[in-house]
Write a structure and sequence with these properties.
This protein is an alpha/beta fold. It is built from 8 helices and 9 strands. The protein has a single domain, classed as Rossmann fold (3-Layer(aba) Sandwich). The protein has a 9-stranded mixed sheet, sandwiched between helices.
Length: 272
């Protein structure tokens, strides 16, 4: 046990925010802090994976990304487009045609960003990867992304609602503990209940599938706005935030323009 004075010496990196491109969320006192666990929930196709990837690639920090929801070709094309600003379709075409060499030197500078593409990673596999990461780099990642939490092979089973919630809460507790042990920010992506699955309206805390609001330090819900001309705005609502502003109704949000060419998200409020 530690006194308050001794706690200063043992806190480590806990509470240190990682770099974030989302200035609108920062104005709502939302930070992705090391040693803490957060959840981003949205309907399918809303943009939660792109949200996580933009965060992971910003600032060139050490990252371990469990990409159960997207394969290597998809994530590589998206990441290359985000980093270089080039059209993702051109990047994907060059990748499939084995004409990707022009990007390799640039991507090589992000050597401490690592991906696992297993469609259903086990908890043992996740732990092995993190131990290997520590062995190679002498530290744990600053950010761990789990995309999606229900893809992890564990106690989350598709049974009755009570069993599903119980298993999901246990998984959240595991990931919260992972954040404390590694000193990383652990960000898990998750789904919402049926009435919000189209992603076209603000999603309250009660709209998170399984209603698992107890464990995460931070919960964001995402919904989208489509202009009919292939343009899209993604809105992020802080429905739970232990360290700052929150609005559990989901009606307060910051907005980001999605560039479908280079996969980047930029703050609408900043005029980008």
């Amino acid at each position: 046990m530690y006194s308050l004075a001794q706690s200063v010496l043992v806190k480590g990196s806990a509470g240190e925010p990682i770099p974030s491109p989302f200035q609108g969320l920062a104005r709502h006192e939302v930070e992705f802090r090391r040693g803490e666990f957060s959840l981003v929930a949205a309907g399918p196709g809303t943009g939660k994976s792109l949200f996580a990837l933009n965060l992971a690639l910003f600032g060139n920090i050490p990252v371990m990304y469990y990409s159960a929801d997207s394969n290597a070709a998809t994530q590589l094309a998206r990441a290359t487009a985000i980093l270089t600003g080039e059209n993702v379709r051109d990047v994907k075409r060059k990748l499939l045609a084995d004409q990707f060499d022009e990007y390799l030197a640039y991507l090589g500078k992000r050597w401490w960003i690592r991906f696992n593409y297993d469609a259903r990673p086990s908890l043992g596999e996740i732990e092995t990867n993190l131990r290997a990461y520590f062995e190679v780099f002498g530290m744990y990642p600053h950010l761990i992304v789990v995309d999606n939490i229900t893809n992890v092979a564990g106690d989350v089973q598709a049974g009755d609602a009570e069993s599903f919630t119980f298993g999901l809460e246990a998984m959240c507790e595991y990931m919260s503990d992972m954040a404390r042990v590694t000193g990383a920010h652990v960000l898990a992506l998750h789904h919402v209940i049926g009435e919000y699955s189209d992603g076209l309206q603000p999603i309250p805390l009660s709209g998170v599938k399984g209603k698992i609001g107890r464990v995460p330090n931070l919960i964001l819900t995402l919904h989208k706005e489509i202009d009919g001309m292939d343009g899209r705005i993604i809105h992020a609502s802080p429905v739970k935030n232990r360290e700052g502003f929150e609005d559990s109704s989901g009606q307060t949000y910051s907005s980001y323009e999605f560039n479908s060419s280079n996969m980047r998200l930029t703050d609408v409020a900043d005029g980008l």
